[in-house]
Design brief:
The structure is a homodimer. Chain A is α+β, with helices and mostly antiparallel strands. Chain A has four helices and seven strands, in the order H-H-E-H-H-E-E-E-E-E-E. The radius of gyration of chain A is 17 Å and the shape is globular. Chain A binds a DNA duplex through helix 2 and helix 4.
DNA sequence: ATAGCTGCAAATGCTTTGCAAGGCC
DNA sequence: GGCCTTGCAAAGCATTTGCAGCTAT
């Protein structure tokens, strides 16, 4: 998470993960981390940026999302094979997926749990357990 | 699951789900359901078909996978945003995902379980719960 | 006969890349 | 100044679609 209390803090935080604090990165960080947890696609963040009057290209949004993910500031969520979602919540948690709208929401951590398999394939360890609860409207 | 004991059975089963028993569909059904549970992508099934000497186009493989899925013979598995996997096991179960190879394996049903959230968003019901245990090699 | 299916090639949609111009240190 | 970053347009890749010809009933 980038500290947004001041521009100086955000700048320092970006540097800390090895990224130059460019105008675009600072602006996208503000959009991503300035309003609670968000679930974005490159396209949706790009639209938000345009709405906010930020001059940035779609390619840079893609780059930035991946750089932030590599830096551990974001997490990728796989719920739909046609789109790539990024989550600003990097804590261990799971997701609701609204099949009708394609939206994602966090499941509060105390509301779901998985009992992991006790025996894994040889020489393998768990990298992560992802749970997606797919929801649809009641009839 | 298509009954493969005889061509006549398979033909009948395809008709039962409203699909004409064409040469391509019968051949793909045999590949899919003839060797235990399989996890395929369109491309991998297409390759299997070519290896088996089946004359079929990639577009038809895509069509067939989707038709079989709509008919309830297959299930889609979302583990990777770049590829679309289909599973011949349509029972309620979950998956291992091998991050190194991109392969998928079923998790025996008694080995994992999710405690579903007790309160869902208003007017929503669970369509499905998907659990993916992502594995990597131990160092 | 005719409605449905197949195969090809073209189109699509999301994502990545190459490279010249611009910005940060 | 030098290296990193950006932006655009082009390329890439998996998947879908349009349509003429073929096939099952």
């Amino acid at each position: 998470m980038i500290d947004l209390r001041s521009n100086a803090e955000a700048t320092k935080d970006l540097r800390a993960v090895g990224l130059r604090p460019t105008r675009q990165r600072l602006a996208l960080a503000r959009l991503l981390f300035g309003h609670g947890n968000r679930h974005v696609t490159a396209e949706s963040l790009y639209d938000s940026a345009l709405d906010a009057g930020i001059k940035v290209s779609l390619a840079t949004v893609y780059n930035t999302l991946h750089q932030f993910t590599s830096a551990g500031l974001l997490r990728q969520v796989v719920v739909d094979s046609t789109r790539c979602y990024f989550d600003t919540n990097i804590e261990n948690h799971h997701h609701f997926y609204f099949e009708d709208t394609g939206e994602i929401a966090d499941i509060p951590n105390d509301r779901i749990n998985a009992v992991a398999p006790t025996d894994l394939p040889r020489d393998m360890e768990i990298s992560r357990v992802d749970i997606v609860v797919r929801l649809r409207h009641t009839r």
